[in-house]
Amino acid sequence: MGRKPLLGCGMAIVVVLLTLRGSAPAQTPAPTSTPSATPPQVERLKVAVQLEREQNDPILMTVVYAAQYAPVYEALVEEDPGHHFVPMLATDWHMSLDGKTWTFNLRKGVQWHFGWCAFTAKDVVHTLQRHVRADSMSVQVGIMQELLDHVEVVNDYQLIFHLPQPRTDLHIQLSTRWYNAIVCQAYFEAEGQEGLNRTMVGTGPYQFKERVWGNLSYWNASPTNTGG
Q1: What is the pLDDT of residues 48-63, one digit of tens each?
Q2: Domain region containing 41
Q3: What is the DSSP letter of 53?
Q4: Domain containing 72 — which CATH number?
Q5: Tens digit of pLDDT for each residue in 183-219?
Q6: 193 lies in some domain
Q7: Residues 6+ apart with CB under 8 A from 175
Q8: How far apart are alpha carbons 60 and 202 in whole angstroms?
Q9: Which long-range CB contacts under 8 A does 129-138 form with residues at least 24 apart?
């Protein structure tokens, strides 16, 4: 980093360090090598940010604090450095001529960290459901409720949104511009909110290792989804 964090500003200084997907804890099953939307650029990532709030669950955070979880989680669509919207967990998407029907095809063979099964359309629907819960910090509750009310799950890797009104920016709304991270249904159902508060389980290029609240968090680069 080459720069010392400022102290005495009334904010927690969080340093985050992640590990390569695949170096999962011994008590969890080792994930298999599967395709990734975003391969890691380095084997270890260390990030220092000033935060007023720390949280491992992206649904309970606002965009302002997304640096805590962005390396771990992925969205359906990524906004790249050139501000182009490119595939991430979705391989492609299509809007109907009237702007009311959007079809998203999803990436196959993407593994949740720590061996928590494979990413499917059920995780997308689960994420929409969590956005509209009473404890959500989402600034997009309105649109997420609209999507939840009008989603058709065609199969594990295709979703169709039948919207009541035309919308030409749905791919943007579901992108990393808004840090709309997709979260794991199986992990939430097994471990609950306590589990999410304890450990980030994503599909991104970095896997959560440890957080020392108010001080340090660790990520390692993970080989789980670094192929294709």
Answers
A1: 665 556 778 888 776 6
A2: 12-221
A3: -
A4: 3.90.76.10
A5: 999 999 999 999 988 899 999 998 988 776 665 555 5
A6: yes
A7: 75, 76, 77, 78, 79, 85, 88
A8: 15
A9: 130/59, 130/183, 130/188, 131/59, 133/59, 135/60, 136/59, 136/60, 137/59, 137/60, 137/61, 137/62, 138/59
Both structure tokens of 213: 């609240």
Q: Which of 185, 206, 193, 191 is nearest to 24 (CA)?
A: 206
Listed in sequence order, the residues at least 6 apart from 193 whose beta carbon sits closer than 8 Å to its beta carbon are 57
Helix (H) / strand (E) containing 35: none
Q: Which residues contact residue 221 at a Cβ distance below 8 angstroms, ignoring those fewer than 6 apart?
A: 18, 19, 20, 21, 40, 42, 43, 44, 45, 205, 206, 207
H or E segment at 148?
helix 141-149
Q: What's the token pair of residue 11?
A: 């904010």
Asked if 208 and 39 count as a contact pair (C-beta separation under 8 A), the reply is: no
CB–CB of 92/105 below 8 Å? yes
Residue 227 lies in a domain: no
Task: Give CA–CA dist 124/76, Å, rounded.
Answer: 9
In this structure, is residue 92 part of a structural domain?
A: yes
C-alpha 88/C-alpha 13 separation (Å) is 30
Distance of alpha carbon 210 from alpha carbon 19, whole angstroms: 10
Provide CB contacts within 8 A for 125, sequence distance 6+.
148, 151, 153, 159, 185
In a domain, 94, yes or no: yes
Q: Which of 202-213 are b and which e, b meaning 16 or more Cβ less than 10 Å from the residue's Cβ?
A: bbbbbbbbebee
Residue 71 contacts residue 206 (beta carbons within 8 Å)? yes
**pTM listed for this prediction:** 0.76
Domain total in the chain: 1
